[in-house]
Amino acid sequence: MSPRKAASNPAAKLFVLDTNVLMHDPTSLFRFEEHDIYLPMFVLEELDNGKKGMSEVARNARQASRFLDTIVSETAHGIEQGIPLQAQGNQAATGRLFLQTQFIAHELPPTLEHGKADNAILGVMLFLQKQQPKRAVILVSKDINMRIKARALGLSAQDYFNDKVLEDTDLLYGGVLALPQDFWDKLGADMKSWQQGGHTFYDIKGPLCRDLLVNQFVYQENGGNPFYAVVTAQDGNTAMLRTLTDYTHHKNAIWGITARNREQNFVLNLLMNPEIDFVTLLGQAGTGKTLLTLAAGLMQTLEHKLYSEIIITRVTVPVGEDIGFLPGTEEEKMSPWMGSLDDNLDVLNKPDEESGEWGRAATRDLIRSRIKIKSLNFMRGRTFLNKYLIIDEAQNLTPKQMKTLITRAGPGTKVVCMGNIAQIDTPYLTEGSSGLTYVVDRFKGWAHSGHVTLMRGERSRLADYAGEVL
What we know:
The protein folds into three domains: 3-158, 5'-nuclease (Rossmann fold, 3-Layer(aba) Sandwich); 170-243, Elongation Factor Tu (Ef-tu), domain 3; 256-469, P-loop containing nucleotide triphosphate hydrolases (Rossmann fold, 3-Layer(aba) Sandwich). It is 31% helix and 19% strand. The strands form three sheets. It has a six-stranded mixed sheet. By secondary structure, the chain is an alpha/beta fold. The chain has helices spanning 3-6, 19-24, 41-49, 56-74, 117-131, 144-152, 183-187, 262-271, 289-303, 330-334, 339-348, 356-369, 399-406, 435-443, 461-469, and strands spanning 14-17, 36-39, 83-86, 94-99, 137-140, 156-158, 176-178, 192-196, 199-205, 217-220, 227-235, 238-243, 278-282, 309-314, 371-374, 387-392, 414-419, 449-453. It starts with a helix and ends with a helix. The protein is elongated, with a radius of gyration of 27 Å. Helix 3 runs antiparallel to helix 5, helix 8 packs parallel to helix 9 and helix 9 (289-303) crosses helix 11. The protein contains 15 helices and 18 strands.
């Protein structure tokens, strides 16, 4: 195979794909615009070795193989000349796919082990660079060490960027906006307000309205008269605000829990709103994500009867691996990952002096009878009706896995996704490509979803101080 002979676009780069790119995103074959792609033989062998099993990686390997089979079988030209690829979303941009069709022997440094797939791919890179010195030959890999080895040999290497929702997660939607101090002065006569259903509504006009999103929280804290509201409608330069229920007050306690700070109050307003079907919560450990979500779920399941039961699922890292080696039922197998659930239930199931220990035990049994723990492995094909679905540690999900989970929701189901994108344990996922980042960005502004990033920890002064200094 000689890409140089068939190169119709001398400005097109030649990207050599590592196996982990295809296993992470099978559609990466169509995401390089007008540039060409080269697949070494070792990549095809690794795809074949990784296709067995029911994990997400195995599914992606099988899908990548199906794509390659379709591309190769439908081409009318020789493989050596490059197979045209139609870039997604761009009919004009067409790169080509090259497969290694001949044995390539290149002298690798003696310190690199021969026969190893990574080193064989680097050998192919060195051959292509020598064969086409005027063309940019670039390795694309999700493996950091692979990229470091390539650069140490003088080769160009980069991460796969097309799966990233945001390059800078500081730009991620936070769900909360602080109003400027002169906000009300600028509105003047353009503002209308009225009372309805125990809340005050504000119809406002102005340039700031263009930056607002539906179900975004706004606040202004000026001394002893703070203002907290949520955006209920937005259209161009106009928007409507509605004041919130004050969940910091004991009269509005949810299962005995009150909000301890501004963001927790926003969270409870989302969780207790039956019109909100999808809630995402970001925040570091100790900000109250699990406790608030469970309290709201118990209140709406046992008291308000909105949902028939609470379903909790948590990503077990490594994601998608079988939990069958653990003893017991599905729920018992998941229990090692559910310590945080038991900790929060202990907080919510406070002792009652009148009912005593027997009453507390009965309440605990009632609560646990309405809470089901499910594994992500068995979510495909399920449909949840009138359930309160909690997805914990959602930062370890890929966008595809997140779609699989959320589309399980049937009528009357509320889905709550929570996690901390600074604590990602899944290989090849980053803050910018996490499924949690993906859904926060895609769902913002939808009338039936809401998001809050919690900033302040509420565990203890020891935990707060340790988080700052350690």
